[in-house]
Write a structure and sequence with these properties.
binds flavin-adenine dinucleotide, nine-stranded mixed sheet, FAD/NAD(P)-binding domain, eight-stranded mixed sheet, D-Amino Acid Oxidase, Chain A, domain 2, 8 helices, globular, alpha+beta
């Protein structure tokens, strides 16, 4: 075994978006901390890869997320300041704005306006004609409108994970890659025993941030999670006014049929990223997960692109499979194990969790310290019981 130390104050299982942030906040408390992941840092097998993650404040999913987002923005900014030691280093967060488009009485436009009004957030409404005038590349149905939020934008997802892991190590955390945790159990007294493919560790406290694998690590809880395979696509099209260089915003579309798609602008010469947020294919066996191009998901995205962006030709330049870990109501689960109080977990991020990684990571450590924070009450697992 490469790890000489066997006991830690805290072990964090999984260092994707949530685990990397938790590791950093745990290490900052002067605990001895070990992070364990079955893959390496910032890998492509979980849910925290694919160049970008959209971030926005006026949250159509529920206004209760807004206070968490306001703090997340501050914490991303703080991380960015530590990460950007040279002017040429890429920013973690780019606030190019986000334009959310849909029927005026649809889930997205009404949800955005509700959250914006509740928290006095800066947003601006546009008719379809106004959108066509400002962003001529977009095709918006006459009966749809858009809400622009200037604070929206995107995070560079792999850089964010790497920055959190670096900060965790700066504070003394140890990382163990390519090591699968097979079981967590009470191991005598209050200690927890963590069994891995590379031997056994003990810890006073454990954080489980295992993404799509959460149900396997917490079998007794019967978490109501379903994993969906979701394809990320990068296209180049024969119009160039979708580039970040022209300050093109992120866009999110609610369509007539209720489907949701989003686009992040072209950056780093890869092409514009186009994904469907709705839909996806259920994965029954994670060990059989395929990263091959799914033609069905691609053809849905092709069709969306044709309908929503003026162009004549498009070319898929890259794709990457990813996992959404869904709860029945698409709200996250951030909770304490009911029988093992020194074990906390965060799961079921339902395809919209990354932007919250800083507050979730901080909250998991706060829970281990016995801190109350009623802002997270709506994310307790009991609502799924
Ligand atoms: C295509 C796609 C687009 C998305 N877009 C957005 C977006 O625009 N905005 C947004 O906010 N969110 C978005 N999300 C959601 C967001 O990316 C996820 O909610 C978030 O990344 C989940 O992080 P996580 O740490 O829970 O999971 P992961 O990043 O998957 O991390 C879990 C880690 O646990 C490790 N692990 C699991 N089991 C074990 C084990 N037994 N032993 C050791 N290690 C283990 C895994 O290897 C993995 O590294 C998107 C997700 C996808 C898939």
């Amino acid at each position: 075994m490469s790890q000489s130390k066997q006991h830690f104050d805290c072990i964090v299982i999984g260092f994707g978006g949530m685990g990397s942030a938790a590791l950093r906040y745990a290490a900052m408390t002067r605990r001895s901390v070990l992070g364990i992941d079955q893959h390496g840092p910032a890998h492509t097998h979980g849910s925290s890869h694919g160049q970008t993650r959209v971030i926005r404040k006026s949250y159509f999913e529920h206004p209760d997320y807004v206070p968490l987002l306001l703090e997340s923005y501050e914490l991303w900014d703080e991380l960015n300041r530590r990460h950007r030691t040279k002017p040429e280093t890429k920013e973690l967060l780019t606030q190019c704005g986000i334009l959310q488009i849909g029927p005026p009485d649809g889930e997205v436009v009404t949800g955005v306006l509700t959250s914006a009004a509740a928290y006095d957030l800066k947003v601006e409404r546009f008719t379809s004609a106004q959108i066509s005038h400002r962003l001529p590349i977009l095709k918006v149905p006459d009966n749809h409108e858009g809400v622009f939020e200037p604070d929206g934008g995107f995070l560079r997802v792999e850089l964010c994970v790497a920055a959190y892991l670096k900060q965790a190590m700066v504070h003394g955390a140890e990382l163990l890659s390519n090591t699968a945790v097979t079981r967590v159990e009470l191991g005598g007294g209050d200690r927890l025993r963590v069994h891995t493919s590379d031997g056994e560790f003990t810890a006073d406290q454990v954080i489980v941030a295992a993404g799509a694998w959460s149900s396997q690590l917490l079998p007794g809880l019967e978490l109501p999670l379903k994993v969906l395979a979701k394809q990320q696509h990068w296209y180049q099209i024969d119009r160039v006014d979708n580039k970040l260089i022209n300050e093109f915003p992120c866009t999110f579309f609610e369509r007539e049929d209720g489907s949701h798609f989003y686009v992040t602008p072209e950056l780093d010469t890869l092409g514009m990223k186009v994904c469907e947020h709705s839909g996806g294919d259920e994965v029954d066996d994670l060990s059989q997960f395929s990263s091959e191009l799914c033609e069905t998901q691609k053809s849905r995205t092709d069709e969306f692109l044709m309908q929503s962006f003026h162009h004549t030709k498009s070319r898929l330049v890259h794709h990457s499979m990813c996992k959404y870990t869904m709860t029945p109501d698409s709200h996250f689960i951030v909770d304490r194990h009911p029988d093992i109080p020194q074990l906390v977990f965060a799961a079921g991020f339902s395809g919209h969790g990354f932007k919250f990684a800083p507050v979730i990571g901080k909250r998991l450590v706060g829970m281990l310290d016995g801190e109350e924070d009623t802002r997270f009450d709506f994310l307790k697992g009991e609502r799924n019981a």
